[in-house]
Amino acid sequence: MKINFKNYIASIFITVLMVSIFSSCTETKEEVTLLFVGSFTDKKTGEGIHVYEFDTETGKSTLKHTIDSITNTSFQRLSPNGEYLYSVVDSQKKYNGKVAAFKVDVPNKKIDLLNIQDCGGLNPAHLAIDSSGNYLVNSNYSDGSLSLFKINNDGSLSENSQVLQFKDSSIIKSRQRASHMHSANFSPDNNYVFAHDLGADKIRGFELVKKQGKVSLENPKEIKTKPGSGPRHFAFHPNGRFGYLVNELSGKIDAYTYSNGNLGFIEDYLTYQQKQHIYRTADIHISPDGKFLYASNRGPEEDTIVIFSVDENSGKLQLVGHQSTYGEHPRNFGIDPSGNFLLVANMYTNTIVVFKRDIVSGKLTKLPFDISVKNPSSIQMKTY
Description:
It is built from 1 helix and 29 strands. The strands form 7 sheets. Strands 24, 25, 26, 27 and 28 form a 5-stranded antiparallel beta sheet that branches. The longest helix has 22 residues, at 5-26. Helix content is 6%, strand content 51%. Strand 20 (281-286) and strand 21 (292-298) form a beta hairpin. The chain starts with a helix and ends with a strand. By secondary structure, the chain is mainly β. This is 6-phosphogluconolactonase.
């Protein structure tokens, strides 16, 4: 058989070209996990935000970017899509704090400031963002207020559209002479906001009402906690049926059912290994698979992470154990998106300690990759 050489060469060229095009179309981008750390800066301008690349194979971190001209960026929150980072600014000052919006530059592993807005109150302590990424609620601790922001299409913040002020108290006079809003959460269905008032021993519920292009927190209701509890932080279970409140002053976690804007108390659980004269329970998170719950205890005699397994049918907790944080005052901690690592910010010892998480038992094993950073107080992570 006689072969047409020109046609043969042309067919080879076309085949190679098609393989090349197919390969380029199916080539997957390499994933990168970024770790964002917010810090107290001793109430003066300093290194408030650090951005690290986190290796999800080893648990090692590499510093990539620092914001060094900002004050008391003590709490941060990533948008649901991870494109934007929001941080409180000027917390614990005698004048109104602020909220800053940053664009996450993933290729360069850094963040760029978009804008800063007044938060409408004193000492912003917590930020929450709804699942659509359109609204942000800020909790002001010192004057007991909540502020609501609209997030613009470019990730920047509009001026606060609503500030709610609360006047209340409870039984521990050294800590509960006035309302202290410590945090807030959007409900799993995105229709409600629950705010946690340490000073009043109350969870304050609101409906997120959208009318004529505007949004507001309306139809308030109160869920009372046990006197002297000191509600601090809250986590909804991934299945959307349960919620868990960590109480700073009683050292307990309250378990709740959730349905259509209503929280129903199940029971509570002590977070410390033994009775203390002062409790300082701080942060709370649930593993991505929903099987385990973790909370941090900040001294004075015990710096630990408590580990509970979660009954996903009843919402009840079962104690697994306690893990030393290998540092003092674990104000905040985070679980990486894969669920394989847990990182603890030990604020008083200036370290972030990295643990490998056993996804079957929920237990933690310390890795030798501590991150040295001054006064770490907030951890956010995202895989891109």
